[in-house]
Amino acid sequence: MDRNDVPAYPVGLRLAGRRVVVLGGGQVAQRRLPSLVSAGADVVLISTSATASVEAMIAAGEVRWERRRYAYGDLEGAWYVVVATDDPEANAAASAEAEERRVWCVRSDDADAATAWTPATGRSEGVTVAVLTGSDPRRSAAVRDAVVEGLRDGSLAAPRRRARTVGVALVGGGPGDPDLITVRGRRLLAEADVVVADRLGPRDLLDELPPHVEVIDAAKIPYGRAMAQEAINAALVEHAKAGKAVVRLKGGDPFVFGRGMEEAQALAEAGIPYTVVPGISSSISVPGAAGIPVTHRGVAHEFTVVSGHVAPDDPRSLVDWAALARLRGTLVVLMGVEKIGAIAAALVAHGRDADTPVAVVQEGTTAAQRRVDAVLGTVGGVVKAEGVRPPAVIVIGDVVTVGADRE
Ligand SMILES: C[S@@+](CC[C@H](N)C(=O)[O-])C[C@H]1O[C@@H](n2cnc3c(N)ncnc32)[C@H](O)[C@@H]1O
């Protein structure tokens, strides 16, 4: 039988501390070296040149570099060799040495002559997926992508037998577009028994949950603000104590005006294990979705995110508006629709130019996204006249007009 018709025998090599020789410092080495380094291999690169990325790995001490051509004897003591120089004769010679010394040998130029094949690999939360199709690397990559994607977003049912997530996951769901949740957040959502969801965030994802999942709408908890938070904390504790996998799905990032730490503290007090999954905050992503960078070279070297839920003259306000008015950079105001007139007036009164551009982006990243432009001196009136409603992110500063030429 032709050896090439026989399927390869899959195996996971445990290379930690073992000598691996890579011949050639080009694109192939660049692709293979990171996984070899992650596997803890003692990697020796033999090549006359290296790409910039490979050089960075050498400089970081992850790979030892012998800057020369391959010579017979280089594979002595090696467990594994990647042959990828641009010299076919050197490749054939190294391959012959590998055969002689019984070192498994991958060849970039001649898969038929190789004694080992590199599978298309991917990783998701402790699972390594490795796919071999023999002679069709594109198909291997496509199958790998499908499996990894399915594991990540939970659409590939692969229940964890040993380590199911227990307790509560405080998940930042991003600004609203269901594609803008993190991979980890989406997977935890797919594994949840109970989901406690906010009004903001990727609500469309709730439709995808299987019928047995209990969804608690935190926005409908019928108390005042403080009591509602206590009721949410109590619900998280109660369901986690009942042994359920609980996801607290929040808009944006849990720790940006999200009361995430209050929930974490309540869980810690009740002895419930929890994990925090960061999310894409609306403070950066909503301006971005409307074509506004919160920083731009030569325009803004800082951005400040501030809550506008209480007016500047309100004794409860913790914001130093006078100091903010002195800054030249970008000011991003969350929860500020109602008080924007008073906020703009305070900024102008403390010295910020009344002509400073302002953009108000309502329901960013969703199908209903809407942007209204003004300047500090007019924004209070414009927001009222245009009927802008929360949720909206207000961006103040010269970055607002940076993308204007594109539109
Ligand atoms: C209680 S804060 C929560 C912020 C959230 N944790 C974050 O990191 O984005 C709610 C405010 O976030 C802003 N916001 C959240 N999602 C938004 C969206 N899709 N469009 C516009 N503003 C949004 C609004 O200013 C809203 O009033």
From TrEMBL:
Q: Which residues form the Tetrapyrrole methylase domain?
A: 168-378
Q: Could you say which EC number(s) this protein's record lists?
A: 2.1.1.107
- Report the top EC class in one word: transferase
Keywords from the named record: Cobalamin biosynthesis, Lyase, Methyltransferase, Multifunctional enzyme, NAD, Oxidoreductase, Porphyrin biosynthesis, S-adenosyl-L-methionine, Transferase
Q: Name one GO biological process term.
A: methylation
As for family, the record states: Belongs to the precorrin methyltransferase family.
The biological pathway it contributes to is:
Porphyrin-containing compound metabolism; siroheme biosynthesis; sirohydrochlorin from precorrin-2: step 1/1
Q: Which residues cross the membrane?
A: none
What name has this protein been given in UniProt?
Uroporphyrinogen-III C-methyltransferase
InterPro entries under this entry? 4pyrrol_Mease (IPR000878), 4pyrrol_Methylase_sf (IPR035996), 4pyrrole_Mease_sub1 (IPR014777), 4pyrrole_Mease_sub2 (IPR014776), CobA/CysG_C (IPR006366), NAD(P)-bd_dom_sf (IPR036291), Siro_Cobalamin_biosynth (IPR050161), Sirohaem_synth (IPR012409)
Catalysed reaction per UniProt?
A: precorrin-2 + NAD(+) = sirohydrochlorin + NADH + 2 H(+)
**Listed PANTHER family:** S-ADENOSYL-L-METHIONINE-DEPENDENT UROPORPHYRINOGEN III METHYLTRANSFERASE, CHLOROPLASTIC, SIROHEME SYNTHASE-RELATED
List the molecular function annotations (GO) for this entry: uroporphyrin-III C-methyltransferase activity
Q: Gene for this protein?
A: cobA
